[in-house]
């Protein structure tokens, strides 16, 4: 009889690790919950700078900055515009709107207007771009750029912030390169020309396609995924009812990111992307795949197709082509849907608001720190860090992707897209294009959910089950946490059982918080908690969904005061002692402050906040928003804050209080949480498979080494396995939070964008300029 090996895999994560030793002891207790943190939030990549400290509130005095949006609109652009304006004003600079993109720059006049603090209020929740965007043929001609230069010189503007795609940013770089020549042609007075001797350019990438190399995510991509997933979820319900096959076309003329992530997030049966066309005879393989899925009990098939999908001979693959193939060859009831511009519309997600805000602040700092020798830069996202990259290097790599596809070097095209894109592609191939082996292994893997439920848990379970089956293992489901393990609530779980789980919230397996005895078997803990308070990981499954729930709720609450005016809302979020949700929701909803445990506050701070709101009510913005995480202070409770603000604001504003409660744990998981959970579940099972081989000796398994019980966490851009014991020193056991929390660096931005001029940013360190070309090693001819 074959010996069966047994290992445990957690799809929930610790609120806090209460006891960590070199191996698990009988009293080890782990609180599991779920959260994801914004791959979406940015901290600065720092390089030490020897220059003396500069007061950021004086860096912009005597300088002028113009901001424009160009090309296709993207949700989150308004957040970037708002942050640019407010950060510029904070530094003492004048900031100008350029309406209608480069066309407004060429036409001048009323298209270039001085921005004020209040002029960017109530913009965060709006889609598109409030200052307008337009395709401009005039700017492509030198006479058009000459007119644009004249309009900037008249206003003394020498700093230009451009939010757009690679074409818009390339135009900005050309404008900067020609600046001296354009000034000479203007034949203006020497004084004006001298004041405008050079032009600084800073770019932010706004594109829902995520087609710009050098950044993990572009502004608008996450929101577009939200729109797509909303449609996919709606379509799958009708498809299941009628046992239909649906083909959905999403945007992405030259980049398959939206299609690829959508396929992962909804568990699609097939995806077509331009970077990696299907193999020859793909029609037969596709039909076999669909038949196999129906044979496993699936009542529907979902096929995702990027707008620019092509075969290996560069012939387009269309929705109608795939529909006709499936319906005629298989006889399946088939429907096709082209989503179109719905992907560009709607409210920006929490991630895009934070991304745009973070990039806008970084762009202003980069412009004010620039010298005439500084090349045109673009602010990019690398993991949870903001980095400044040479603009034209990024543009070159982006173009090289297209060249690689044209030349049939598809593997190179995928690599040039970056590590994140390649990881997504590898995970998709593993889950969708691998046939389970006929020879089974002698390994059993049990999956257990522990602690509070959160959105994204089921996606991790689904991925773990299917990857385990692909590896030949028997997968077991443990119901109701460690209680279920102790009481024998264990059953095999098969491929078909987890179909459709990516889109379901909560925990289908059930979850409880209980103690467990020592188990000398390999274990993996996946962080899954809305609080995002797990040591060893920047992000947790579930946090992104909770953050979006809080953000949308705050939008509605603020909107309710549109007619009333002069109203302040006090809102309590979850998080225990961890202030992540309150801080990030404060950034995404435009809060006036967010009280958290990690940043102690006293009665004088509360008094200053009240005074701040009283002054705010004298402006055209007559509403306020204050967030407080649940355990921010044992004495200054939410009720206390409500009473204080109500009393001190009498005659100026009134107050309302909201405790959001468990609604933050509910709902369908966001695209990020689905994708993140899928990749975490897949990677965990592969690690367990290798670890079991290491621990298997003489017919038995015994794993008591520190590295046999690990947390799988995201650190910057990588998923890393870390022994639980190694996290002890970085854990505040009493308050169930890590001692080091990266997102605390974003706290000053929250205050600055709320107009607290007493807050200072640390300018002793500046973001490092990184290079892209040498990292890829794939750019043909090494043109840069």
Structural class: alpha/beta
**Which range does the strand content fall in?**
15-25%
Name the average pLDDT: 86
Number of strands: 31
Total helical elements:
23
Spans with pLDDT under 50 lasting ≥5 residues?
1-5, 12-51, 763-768, 775-784
Strand count, sense and barrel status of the largest sheet are: 8 strands, mixed
Question: What's the shape?
Answer: globular
Give the C-alpha Rg: 27 Å
Question: What is the helix content?
Answer: 25-40%
- Which strand order does the major sheet show? 4-16-15-10-9-6-7-8
N/C terminus separation: 63 Å
3D architecture notes:
Residues 65-366, 515-687 form the Phosphofructokinase domain. It is an enzyme of class 2 (transferase). Its cofactor is Mg(2+). One of its GO terms (biological process) is fructose 6-phosphate metabolic process. Residues 1-16 form the signal peptide. With 784 residues, the chain is α/β, with parallel strands linked by helices. The strands form eight sheets. It has an eight-stranded mixed sheet, sandwiched between helices. Strands 19-18-17-1-20-27-28 form a seven-stranded mixed sheet. The protein has a four-stranded parallel sheet with strand order 12-13-11-14, sandwiched between helices. The longest helix is centred in the C-terminal third of the chain and has 25 residues, at 671-695. The chain is globular and about 80 Å long. Mean pLDDT is 86; it is low at 1-5, 12-51, 763-768 and 775-784.
